[in-house]
Design a protein that fits this description.
Elements: H1 4-28, H2 33-47, E1 49-51, E2 54-55, E3 66-71, E4 75-83, E5 86-91, E6 97-101, E7 104-111, E8 120-127, E9 130-137
Antiparallel strand pairs: 1-3, 2-9, 3-4, 4-7, 5-6, 5-8, 8-9
């Protein structure tokens, strides 16, 4: 059973540990804020922005397959999981159309550099009788 003094000591030690770890991180950040901003921007571009993919049909599929999509500056990465057939990916209202075979897990990279910046688009992944749809802004 902890006493009041032990609880205070543990709390103080936790605070000091947290404070020292943030001080170390700040010390390594350097004094050139402009360079740090450039590094952060590059990390954000590489990581991309997830696109929420929802089921476009009224009923849930009997199998457990799903899609993920991530938007980058000039491309979209689409990943299909637990699917063993052809997957068709297209952007509604454009001529961008990709078809690829999936054996378990499949990947498709889509070039979106030709799309108009600031406009909203629908990304559709067609898995036979099931469609997933996600909305993104270029």
């Amino acid at each position: 059973m902890k006493t009041k003094k032990q609880s205070i000591v543990y709390l103080l030690m936790t605070f000091l540990l947290f404070y020292s770890s943030t001080s170390v991180l700040n010390a390594h950040s350097g004094s050139n804020n402009e360079a740090n901003t450039d590094i952060q921007v590059n990390i954000d571009i590489q990581a991309g922005t997830p696109i929420y993919m929802r089921l476009n049909t009224g009923t849930r599929p009997a199998y457990v397959y799903y899609t993920e999509a991530t938007k980058h500056e000039s491309s979209i990465d689409v990943i299909v999981y637990n699917w063993d057939d052809e997957a068709v990916v297209y952007i509604e209202g454009t001529n961008i159309f990709y078809s690829f075979n999936v054996n378990g897990t499949g990947y498709c990279g889509i070039d979106i550099s030709s799309l108009t910046k600031g406009r909203t688009y629908n990304l559709i992944v067609d898995l036979g009788s099931t469609q997933y749809i996600g909305t993104f802004v270029k």
